[in-house]
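Q: Structure tokens for this one, please.
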Amino acid sequence: MGSASKPSEEREEISPELLDRVRARDEAASRELVERLHPLVARVVRGHLGHRDEPEDLMQEVYLKVFTRLDQYRGEMPLAHWVSRIALNTCLDRLRRQKARPELRWSDLSEAEQELLRQTPSEEAATSVELNSSRELIERLLAGLSERDAWLIRELELVGRTIAEVCRQTGWNAGVTRIRAFRARRRLKALFEELEESR
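A: Here is the predicted structure, written as tokens:
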């Protein structure tokens, strides 16, 4: 009876077998693990959310770290504690980055960068391939994204890697990679539009 009041992640232990399947890149097991961890991760992220962050974005970053570091988990502590520590550190890292990197404003740009923005249609800002003359500006906009999103945009748009190449490098499946790329481009476009509005 007393167990009914415990949070679901404490009531339902995550089995070593499930973790083994996740390590073996079983997509169904990975989805199940995310579902089981979601209440815990959501609670930590919402409790430490930065003012410029969306909870879903920060939670995705936590899950990415959990999956990429799962081989380091040895079981000396409950998985929930290990994941909580990753979630908390992810939130604190994001808050530190925000403090160190204030939002970019129109007045921060050189005249050449301002002119480049005036000539670039908003719809194309997030996916422009005319990067030779605008590399510095793009990098300044990318600095406003999370590290993962900035890396993904660089790989796909600047380096020119394919979705398949990014999947091989990260271990993500193609669907996840496309969704993350879409969201990263959308956030980059939003940064560009904020910059235009601040003129």
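A few notes: Confidence is low (pLDDT under 50) at residues 1-11, 121-133. The longest helix spans residues 174-197.
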